[in-house]
Amino acid sequence: MDKKYPGLPMRFAHTGVTQYAPENSLEAFKKAAELGCEGIELDINLSGDGEIVITHNDNMGYMTFDKHHEALRDLTVEQIKRFDIPYRNALKFKYPPYPWTEAAGGTRCPVPENHPESRVTHLITMPEFDAWLATVDYDLTVEVEFKACGMCDRMDEILAESPNVSRYILFSGNFDVLEEMQAHYREKGKPAGLRLGANIRFINERTMDFVRRSDLYEVGLNDGAFTKEDVDMLAGLGVKVFSNLGDYPEWWARLAPYGVTGFKTNYPDAYTEWWAETQS
């Protein structure tokens, strides 16, 4: 990647760099750090024996492409880690087909059955990710998306042993989870340096009520669903804006003028190449 990139808006590799490895895999996260992304976004769920596992869905069907269907909460973490996660069906397009929409942002591009790609990887736990993050030698920010309730206590235990607390932003797009998270940290207090976020997607009466009564570092908003005036309004409340995907050049061109702090992208390579072209 172009080392002259100014660092704002921050490039958050959405579930890692998924052109190189399956989403939410350690290999995809390592690629994001290798490319110099300012941030990573990852998803977490809970195993049956109470460990936080990095994966989007609460069952194995999604990442094993329907070869296995067990629910994570019916499995121990050691059982979960034994499932093979194939590279072949997990890679996304290298570049977004334009025009692009958020709905298509998660589309996977399966490699044909006769392709020689045979590598597999395995799901990892949050403590394993945290141990890797401690080896990253620059200020890599990590958005951790809670996909379900009931994980705050275990996350606190992990953070109590972590050297990376100030690198994390804990958030969710589920309002039940967000309310639980806010209540939990109001009662127990946040570890020093920890930040909270909320993927509210749109600005409306309900979401702004939540923002005004919550402890938030940032909110996620959908591409095309907000203006520079909205970013300025939220800044007045002490809240930064992160854009949800919007992986197309017309939206990329608005991010910096709008004052967006960061954005989640499935295409950090393509974005950075586009950015470099705009500077020439």
Explain what you see.
- The protein is an alpha/beta fold and 280 residues long.
- It has helices spanning 26-34, 61-64, 77-81, 126-133, 152-160, 175-188, 205-212, 228-236, 249-258, 268-279; strands spanning 10-14, 39-46, 52-54, 85-86, 120-121, 141-146, 168-171, 195-201, 218-222, 240-244, 262-265.
- The protein has an 8-stranded parallel beta barrel. It has a two-stranded antiparallel sheet with strand order 4-5.
- Helix 1 (26-34) links the parallel strand 1 (10-14) and strand 2 (39-46).
Q: How helix-rich are the residues, as a percent range?
A: 25-40%
Instruction: Trace the largest sheet across and list its strands.
Output: 1-2-6-7-8-9-10-11
Q: Which ranges are low-confidence, i.e. pLDDT below 50, for 5 or more consecutive residues?
A: 98-107
The profile of the biggest β sheet is:
8 strands, parallel, barrel
Report strand %: 15-25%
What is the overall pLDDT average? 91
Structural class: alpha/beta
Strand runs, count: 11
Head-to-tail CA distance between termini: 15 Å
What is the general shape? globular
String of helices and strands = EHEEHHEEHEHEHEHEHEHEH
Radius of gyration, rounded?
18 Å
